[in-house]
Amino acid sequence: MPVKSFKFISPGIFINEIDNSQLPAVGAEIGPVIIGRTERGPAMRPVKVNSFSEFVEVFGNPIAGGQGGDIWRDGNYTTPTYASYAAQAYLRNSNAVTVVRLLGAEQTGLADSAAGKAGWHTTLDNDGDIEDNGGAYGLFVFNSASAGTAVNGALAAVWYLTTGSIQLSGTLRGGAGTTIADSAGQLYADNGGEYKALIQGAAGATAKEVSFNFTPSSSKYIRKVFNTNPTLTNSSITDSSLVETYWLGQTYERHLADVVGGTTSTFGVVLGLDSASSDAADFRAGFQAAQTPWIIAQDMGALENYQAEDMAKLFKFHTLDAGEDEQKKLKISIADIKASTSVDDPYGSFSVLVRDARDNDNAPVILERYSSVNLNPNSTSYIGRAIGDQFLVWDDVIRSHRVYGNYLNASKFIRVEVNSTVDAGAADPAYLPFGSFGPVRLKRWTYNSGDSGSAPASSWVTGGLGGIPHAASVKFIDGGDGLESGAFTGSAFYPAIPLRVSASAGGLSNPKNAYFGIDTTQNGNNRHDESYSDVVRMLPPAVDSFATTTSTEFSYMFSLDDISGSASDANSLGVWVSGSRLAGNSFTSGTYTDVLDQGYNRFTVPLCGGFDGLNITEKDPFNYTRALADGTDSTKYAYYSAKRAIDTVADPEVVEYNLMAMPGIYHAGLTSHMMEVCEARGDALAVIDLDSGYRTSAESTDTIANRVGSVSTAISNLNTRGVNSSYGCAYYPWVQINDSISNSLLWAPPSIVALGTFSSSQRKSELWFAPAGFTRGGLTEGSAGIGVIQTRERLTSKDRDNLYEANINPIASFPAEGIVIFGQKTLQVTPSALDRINVRRLMIYVKKEISRMAATVLFDQNVPATWNRFMSKAEPFLRSVQARLGLSDFKIILDESTTTADLVDRNVMYAKIFLKPARSIEFIALDFVISSTGAGFED
């Protein structure tokens, strides 16, 4: 502070403190970008994590593979998630990784019959249409009733068949027996709560006969006795003795109990699920995020006109590109709803809670809370501002994401979509969230025996495609002296999430703490309903999962307006009954605030309709043999998805990284694209895996001897490609690692341990030291950041020579020293300093840091004073690198000889920076001279 800045009036001592000891800000650490499958998390966009614990929180634990079980419901744990292990290996010694989780995407504008469609289906013919054989079959169960009485039924289960059909067997509703030939579409009585199903081949012969029920504790529980693993239908990866022609998909235990009642004295029928040329087993679509239904406002009109579906739509929530996982694990609650009490501020307030879907209202598990938000766009507590509304849309033309929305996302899980009228401030300020639409479901169908020989009146039930498997007519048997005699009239309902009916349900100590709306618990207790994850699944893509059509409806309409009780009794127990307000007996028959005054000011909505877009019949949806080989953007969705993931991180102004890896994906075109992106950026090194002929068990049923690959194949395949780039490097062979979390062993691609050594080498010394050799490349000694047990192939000295000559870095195993990375070449064929990894990484680092320094003088005056300021930053930095053994010498020239008068006139500052990179020792020559006894060493 100069002396003239002091204000001297009367005599005294004036003191000012100047702190010149402040350290310069340290930039955020830059690590690798890793592309691949993870257990869960944001999809197809870069997300940075700063520790392995944060990685697990966002993307889940690494999956070692080899796990069976109920894959339809629990997810695919059959093959390793290599990207997760790569992140674990690197984060062991560093604190920065950017992850792009792979899901199934498809090129914009593909025809429905295109081979490049994402997702899955059971079987297609040559025209891309669903075949008559195979498909989806639904079991509809009806409650018993006397003759002539209408009954209710529910879709209880869905099977997906690659060929053949599934039918019931046993005693017909009329009491008679049956044969396979006439079993399609007939009603069968249960046998003490059990049904018997016949799984038939394409020709109609019975392949398997299974008895089942819907009691989870029973040994014949439906999910225990039927195959629930879709990958077992894939004969390319399943032993012929274990191949199945079907799998059991959704089962709706809670829905069945709510609609039909008890599990005995029922009757059922299996029907094909299709509509014209569309099939319920056709899930060919790209990944999509889950959503809540629209949340609606309270009724502000006349009581006698009330219809919940006519209420104003306020907002809805979307997950952040997370596919199916988040809808199974999260639900949203609206709580603390308060009407305005201020004349000056007509907007009320409420809270938004992101909850664990498996919790219950007795013990809510709140993952995020946004308190006292409102619908006032000019408020700092506006819901859009508090939670965030931005989302990304991929543009295939510019090969980049477009960003939409006004507010940055504050939530780790969701974003909000606000109705445009509300967002414009044009909605009634008194509006409060009071309820919601239900998820979309197929409309119920009804059948009356008077419609003899005809199919039920529904576009998604009957044998619309013809043939025996999907019966052309539904033969509901009437008459006889059996369990149920007389005509049949029934209505079959598709699944809906049950709603809380009473505030006392679940045994809450204080009923006023009840969250009305959806109920995710089992009927009669507070345990989670496992069938909930099936109810919130996406409908077949031929049906819109978020908007109604002629064949769909909202599964429910809920509003606090329909909570009833005694308004004069402060302790009145609230009960939800649809139509209460219209009947004039709800709390809000007076005013909408009455139900809030009673303390019933909260409700819960589901997230639904998310989809991973992956082929669930593959253990590894991104395997080389079927998913990637010979792929293009329009013919293989896995290829398109991987390439798009690379393109999401192509722009250096979108995401920073200094390494790129896509572990386990060795498609030549994709790995070349990785190197091209890194070279175009100039600030990253691609660590690629090579096609060495090695195939995992997810590729085929061949013996390991036929899948192991070889040194010669790896070299030959690389030489054929003609790669010549210092922005790529490769290693050989695969290694076996130990998953310390699950204590499992698995074979992993070499790029995983290579990334680990890059991280540990940088921590032990500097990034420009070679990440190889016994000191920094000793995998047995822990340099990979993850336990390495053995190599897939034990390399000889000749193997190592051949690999290194082809610019492939060997992973060698020595008797005494253990497993070691024994090379550090880039894939540059032309001899230069840049054919070594340590030099390439040095140059990436130096260029990045010098460019940052240059940015500080951008738009300053192009005069010697500015040049000197740049030099004063660049020279100490390079001197520091030299002192730390990165450079042997350097020189910077920035004066009138480089930045000439002509360049000054063109607004250019031009500097020349000469560097001599320090080289690593890769060859040591030692002469041992044996001398005679009398020789003197002084000579």
Q: Would you kindly provide a written description of the structure presented here, covering whatever features stand out?
A:
This protein has 939 residues and is α+β, with helices and mostly antiparallel strands. It has four domains: 33-106 and 623-838, Rossmann fold, CATH 3.40.50.11780; 120-284 and 444-493, no CATH class; 295-441 and 497-606, no CATH class; 870-939, no CATH class. 19% of the residues lie in helices and 22% in strands. The strands form twelve sheets. Strands 2-3-1-34-35-36-40-41 form an eight-stranded mixed beta sheet, sandwiched between helices. Helix 13 (637-648) packs parallel to helix 14 (668-681) and helix 19 (837-855) packs antiparallel against helix 20.
- Mean pLDDT across the residues is 88
Computed Rg: 34 Å
- What general outline do the C-alpha atoms trace? globular
For the secondary structure, the number of strands is: 43
Give helix % range: 10-25%
Q: Helix/strand/pairing class, anyone?
A: alpha+beta
Helix run count: 21
Query: Would you identify the regions where 5 or more consecutive residues have pLDDT less than 50?
Result: 22-26, 125-131, 178-182, 451-455, 463-475, 477-486
Q: Which fold name corresponds to the CATH topology of the largest domain?
A: Rossmann fold
Beta-strand level of the residues, as a percent range? 15-25%
Give the N-to-C terminal Cα separation: 70 Å
What is the class of the largest domain in the CATH system?
A: Alpha Beta
What strand line-up does the widest sheet have?
A: 2-3-1-34-35-36-40-41
Largest sheet: 8 strands, mixed
Count of the domains: 4
The CATH architecture assignment of the largest domain turns out to be: 3-Layer(aba) Sandwich
